[in-house]
Specification:
309 residues; mainly alpha
């Protein structure tokens, strides 16, 4: 456990460095926004494209794996929704809280950290987790919020979801990389070096950006944020572990990657959705802040456990 903690610590130190820069205003919110854009649209996209261009769809697509992750995640999604409805929250608020309970920071934290800690073979499973999060649950929250508001706008939901996926550089870069791989298109040396160099900026840039963005987050509504953080850091990986190891019988290594990905703290894009729709952004902000702080310990514990398989 101590050895794993020391390996994960540098990642969280980079987050801490970004937090300090943001908190002292050395790195302004505007600077953070532009760094996040650079990482999201350029560095992380280059990393994902290079990874997927060296894989085939057959290496990535594993239906039992997808069903195990989807099933375990759905259990916690429903639990968080039921708790929210018991508290008499609206459908939109319940959808946002459920999203906090199951959507982790796979893109900005998971890809850089888990690939380095668990090896290059983790790339395929991580991409499957990311695809389920973005395509299934990313669509579900839009459908629930839009549908609950009515106003005759329900017919626009498929268009909204489809355009959202097409505008997401992570989805686009993975698809383009797989097309390159499927068609055996050779990657010219300079292009490969360019992608490698640009992709190398993803890890430090993403972690620093996470920390700097946390500096603007609020810690209000701590009780609710604590419940959502508990769902995300403890219940979600536990449910995924049961589904992967005991229900679907996933092999130890991909199951371990799946469980580690499920243990990641609440993703920043949940806050962006909450802010965009005007649904409980402060609550989401507090959940991101608390879950990220607590994940320094919980993620290390989970990774130590899955590497013992």
């Amino acid at each position: 456990m101590w050895e794993i903690f020391l390996k994960t610590l540098p990642f969280f130190m980079l987050i801490g460095l970004g937090y300090g820069a943001g908190r002292t205003r050395f790195f302004t919110p505007e600077a953070t926004a532009y760094l996040t854009k650079f990482v999201f649209y350029f560095a992380l996209s280059a990393m994902l494209f290079r990874f997927s261009a060296n894989l085939s769809l057959g290496d990535i697509l594993d239906w039992p794996f997808v069903l195990a992750y989807l099933g375990g995640t759905a259990v916690i999604y429903v639990l968080a929704t039921l708790v929210a409805m018991y508290r008499r929250l609206s459908v939109a608020e319940a959808a946002v809280e459920a999203q906090c309970a199951v959507i982790g920071n796979v893109g900005f934290l998971g890809i850089p950290m888990l690939v380095l800690l668990l090896g290059d073979a983790a790339i395929g499973p991580i991409m499957m987790v990311l695809a389920v999060d973005l395509i299934f649950f990313g669509s579900l929250i839009v459908i629930l919020i839009t549908g609950s508001r009515g106003g005759g706008a329900l017919w626009r939901v498929p268009l909204t979801v489809g355009m959202g996926l097409l505008k997401n550089p992570m989805i686009v870069s993975i698809v383009l990389g797989l097309l390159v791989s499927a068609n055996n298109i050779p990657m010219p040396g300079p292009v490969n070096e360019f992608m490698t160099l640009l992709g190398a900026a993803a890890t430090p840039g993403a972690l620093f950006a996470i920390g700097a963005s946390l500096a603007t987050k609020s810690a209000e509504r701590v009780v609710v944020a604590g419940w959502l953080s508990f769902c995300k850091l403890v219940l979600h990986p536990a449910a995924v572990a049961v589904a992967a190891l005991f229900v679907f019988g996933i092999a130890p290594y991909p199951a371990g990657v799946m469980i580690a990905a499920a243990s990641l703290p609440v993703a920043g894009n949940v806050f962006m959705l909450a802010q965009h729709y005007g649904v409980a952004p402060t609550r989401v902000s507090a959940a991101i802040l608390l879950s990220t702080a607590a994940s320094i310990v919980t993620v290390s514990l989970v990774i130590a456990w899955v590497t013992s398989f």
